[in-house]
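Async update (no meeting this week)

Hi team, since we skipped the sync, here's where things stand on the single-chain job. The sequence we agreed to prioritize is pasted below, unchanged from the tracker. I ran it this morning and attached the output directly underneath so nobody has to dig for it. Comments welcome in thread, and please keep replies under the output.
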Amino acid sequence: METAPPEGVQTLKLMAMGLTAMEQRLLEGTVKVSQRRNPRLVMLNVNQAMDADVLILNARDAGANQWAQKNAWISGKAVIWVEGADVPKGHTIARRPVQWPILPMLLARALENGPGAAVKKAALAAGSAAGPAKDPGAVAPVALRAHQSVLVVDDSLAVRAHLRSQLELRGFVVTDADSVQTAMGKVTTQTFDCVLMDVLMPGADGYEGCRQIKARQRSGRTLPVIMLTSKTSPFDRIRGKMAGCDAYLTKPVDPEQLYEVLTQQLQAAQATSGTSRSTSSGGASTVGLTRPA
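Output:
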């Protein structure tokens, strides 16, 4: 019988189908090893598949393929296809022999590449204000409304000051908070376009802060949360994704990488919220990012 996890420990539910007997044993062994980690991995049977956070399917198994075709709802799940080739968008491929010891990395990738990521990619493509790039190999500039507002949440004054200086140089309006409690007070009374959230803070941690922010989002408005942390374990990335974070960056963060990810998240939020506009002569000023080919 499955036991309840200790207080504060989350569970990531997995369901596997069509694996070889050896692969199934190795998977179950990896799951057992994870019992002292957070989140704790839990195996479900096929009758519980709809409750799974990640599905692991053998692309070369006829039964697994037939089951997937009958259950269209898996398009909304994070799915890892073992030896897959032509798999649905947002699904992840794992090649044989599967390196089960790095299963947490595969799970983190599957969650990050899941259906939500596909929607954001589509929004980024549809919302680009710059039109097609002249160079076929280049990525078109991503245009943003001017004076985007960013909330920086970190208990370190030095980190907050550094991020403020970097962001203000790029034209962002920055507000900061030294705790989740302070941040939630600001989110309740002010409007922000994005949140940069540290993980390790006194009191409620960044994962809890992200959950609280996502729980209070108004319908039709997307508030991206980017986690900035020194925690590099795949389990930490999984916890961030389970909390609802939109991106996960490890410290020290390169300023260009931060700007690129921040710009992508803001642009996707504009598009999915229906506020993205093409820039015309005489129109609103924009902040742009052009990536090299």
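Quick observations from my side:
Residues 11-116 form a domain with the Rossmann fold fold (CATH 3.40.50.2300).
Confidence is low (pLDDT under 50) at residues 127-142, 275-293.
Reply here if anything looks off.
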